């Protein structure tokens, strides 16, 4: 997958929240975090890929993090492999350090052009390090002016509200966990 030069990474906010269960053309990106390096921790990189361009080991690690988070940790036996990961417009975003996946999410597109962010997961040892916020910022940059929806675990609604999402319907139960549909309206094209 070809690499695209990255924009300068904003300084990392070590106090930024992460969801605890966190819960066009192909573009590759690699973004380093210099702040982590200066703190004695190896730098992280943020990458974006279509399914077809994912290296097999990375795909395995992304799926393992999602299964470990949603199926095992949250005790929700559901079909994690829903067929949507392979859609041509789907984009997978992840943060890694030394090749290890620390956090991930995916962006899908509905038939009406609405973007859908989902499968937001952060490894337990990495929670609270701002990875969820960093992924959301990049995902929304990728989505651009399109309207965007997500299904938030109810206790994480405040996290997503920081990115302009508001509740878009009543709370509902999904696999024993309260969720709320959320929406960020489309932005006028510039």
Please tell me about this protein's structure.
With 190 residues, the protein is an alpha+beta fold. 22% of the residues lie in helices and 27% in strands. It has four helices and nine strands. Strands 1, 2, 3, 4, 5, 6, 7, 8 and 9 form a nine-stranded mixed β-sheet that branches. Strand 8 (172-174) and strand 9 form a beta hairpin.
Order of helices and strands: EHEHEEEHEHEEE
Radius of gyration: 16 Å
The oligomeric status of these chains comes to single chain
| Mean pLDDT figure | 82
Q: pLDDT below 50 for ≥5 consecutive residues: which ranges?
A: 1-17, 20-38
Cα shape: globular
Query: Strand portion, in percent?
Result: 25-35%
What structural class do you assign from the helix and strand content? alpha+beta
Give the CA-CA distance, first to last residue. Answer: 30 Å
How many β strands by DSSP? 9
